[in-house]
Write a structure and sequence with these properties.
Elements (H helix, E strand, L loop, with lengths): L1 H6 L14 H15 L5 E6 L2 E6 L4 E6 L2 E4 L1 E6 L3 H19 L3 E2 L3 H10 L1 H9 L3 H13 L4 H12 L3 H5 L20 H15 L7 E5 L5 H10 L2 E5 L3 H13 L6 E4 L10 E7 L10 H11 E14 L1 H8 L4 H6 L8 H11 L3 E7 L1 H17 L1 H6 L4 H19 L3 E9 L15
Parallel strand pairs: 1-5, 7-8, 7-10, 8-9, 10-11
Antiparallel strand pairs: 1-2, 3-4, 5-6, 11-13, 12-13
Helix pairs in contact: 2-3, 2-5, 3-5, 3-18, 4-18, 9-10, 12-15, 16-18
Amino acid sequence: MKKWVEALTPGSTADYQTLGSASERMARVLVHRHLGSMQRGELTLEEGGEINHFGGVAEATAGESETGPRPIVAHIKVVSPAAYTAIAVNGVVGAAEAFMDGHWTAPDLVSVVRFFVANMSALKGMDKERSLSNRLAFKVLDRCRRNSISRSRENISAHYDLGNDFFELFLDPTMMYSAALFDCRDISLEQASIAKLDLICRKLHLKPGDHLLEIGTGWGGMALHAAKNYGCRVTTTTLSQQQCAYTTRLVAEAGLNNKVNVLMKDYRELQGQFDKLVSIEMIEAVGHQYFGAYFGKCSSLLKPNGLMAIQAITIADQRYEQARRSIDFIQRYIFPGGCLPSMSVIANHVASDTDMCIHSVTDMTQDYATTLRLWREAFTQKIEQVRAQGFNERFINMWLYYLCYCEGGFTERVIGTSQIVMAKPDYRPDQNRSYCCQ
């Protein structure tokens, strides 16, 4: 955790003042010009006592509430003109960095994210005006973070080894760090997390005698649920030292040492044959260059009649190529080395690198927006405890931006999440099973 505090030491944040320098004036003109081209939703920009309005009439987009579509009405307060310079130099990532540094604030950051998502074409124009040298710097960073076996351990550690105590502040008691399943029901986050786990177990038709392989342990929620409730053996692997220690302790406390084996290995180092395989929101950490190796390895680890289930965050097929060639806020600050696959990318790799076929797909995108809202609310309520753990204000702003950034993305459905089940050639469905794949 110490390295995060050192790496995220904030610079000075001046009170808003008259834009004195030529560079600040030019940056403001540039940003306002792009804002003026945005037509969807409403944005109020407050700066130094001046109010500017951008966008058109507030309109409903993909996000919906119980009473119908929610219009996008966003408000930003510019605290320092440094915000304009950051955005002009680093585009969308610069906007995130300016928020982290306290150069702008918003009473409802999710609505701000939704506004810019709804006006994505204008954002593309803003990012295109970044300097060539800046884009090349991002490319170098991308190459340095590619997920080789050795680099994967560092990338995973950078996020998941922030401390178990930190994640306990906003996750539910299952410690599931993935989309829960609400299915339009008024239930708690913990109940929704258990519902998600149970749905996966039923999709895999887990039973006593099965040996389940889990790639991406997390904090042990899936492994414990499967062993306790379905009587199967579980081998689960992680690259996070803290997650490994945490899960090993839970397994011992539950008296499941004879059922659950916790490993600290890269998926590429695994050996053996398993009846079923599960990987919950781990594929995002694989990387574009390694999707083929990932699916090929998973297929080789399954018996000829095996089943594999993944829960995956995905990006639209139309945006995949552009996204994989750029470094966004999430890749820069949250998940180094990460890459969201698209549904076509997954399907193509299943077809070309395995002998499996896709058996079912279940969309959970709106469930993730709800999950993130509840994480955000819990995190906000525990800010003082976050500070007590040694995290500074820039880190706190970064984490809030991360949660809101993702919540807005799922609400507007520019990113999605799905459970995908794949079957080996000799798999034959049980006609009497209680669960019918969706």
